[in-house]
Design a protein that fits this description.
The complex is a heterodimer of chains A (113) and B (116). Chain A has no helices and 11 strands. With 113 residues, chain A is an all-beta fold. Chain B is built from no helices and 11 strands. In chain B, the strands form 2 sheets. In chain B, strands 2, 4, 5, 6, 9, 10 and 11 form a 7-stranded mixed sheet that branches. Chains A and B meet through strand 5 and strand 10 of A and strand 5 and strand 10 of B.
């Protein structure tokens, strides 16, 4: 069973602070990793993808990948109240599981004004 | 460009009825995935389809659930003889290529199924 683990939170940060979200995965062969944001009652929205070790920055978001440690993270700089949502880590499987995008249960982020 | 389109957005069915959920992928996407999300739970993979083919249905319950993606028209997720436990949000996602090729998947707005 291929798994993606996230701290469920809630994670509370003050407005303007850096929010750090973490994710580990069990499938050592996985090559593609994603962060989705899901507001309550809404659908998942893709915010970052990362395929290579290291950092990838997009605006206030930075994704970090360490395949040796099977670890993915998302940093949100200058957090805003509008960033309050559940953040889902997702991993494409490898081999026979490559058809499945496996999700963690999500970390609920609350940005306090 | 239109995104992934799902309909209906909300569906209420009595126990024992059939539910049909529709999904039209993004333009240029030929890979469709169905996920189910129970309240306060994560997204669970159900089935992966390409046009006229079911590629992976390992997440689909063996009874009452079926999916298709015909040559023409949307993908359909069909739930027969619904029970209260089927109440959930059902999301469809699409991608331009298969998941082993560093491809991004985009989700529709979902169908909220309520069984009464």
């Amino acid at each position: 069973q291929k798994e993606v683990e996230q701290n469920s939170g809630p994670l509370s940060v003050p407005e303007g602070a850096i929010a750090s979200l973490n994710c580990t995965y069990s499938d050592r062969g996985s090559q593609s990793f994603f962060w989705y944001r899901q507001y309550s009652g809404k659908s998942p929205e893709l915010i970052m993808s990362i395929y290579s070790n290291g950092d990838k920055e997009d605006g206030r978001f930075t994704a970090q990948l360490n395949k040796a440690s099977q670890y993915v993270s998302l940093l949100i700089r200058d957090s805003q109240p509008s960033d309050s949502a559940t953040y889902l880590c997702a991993v494409w499987g490898s081999g026979a599981g490559s058809y499945q995008l496996t999700f963690g249960k999500g970390t609920k982020l609350s940005v306090i004004p | 460009n239109a995104g992934v389109m799902q309909n209906p957005r909300h569906l209420v069915r009595r126990r024992g009825q059939e539910a049909r959920l529709r999904c039209s992928p993004m333009k240029g996407h030929s890979h469709v995935y169905w996920y189910r999300q129970l309240p306060e739970e994560g997204l669970k993979f159900m089935v992966y389809l390409q046009k006229e083919n079911i590629i992976d249905e390992s997440g689909m319950p063996k009874e009452r659930f079926s999916a298709e993606f015909p040559k023409e028209g949307p993908s359909i997720l069909r739930i027969q003889q619904v029970v209260r436990g089927d109440s959930a949000a059902y999301f469809c996602a699409s991608s331009p290529r298969g998941g082993d090729l560093n491809t991004e998947a985009f989700f529709g707005q979902g169908t909220r199924l309520t069984v009464v």
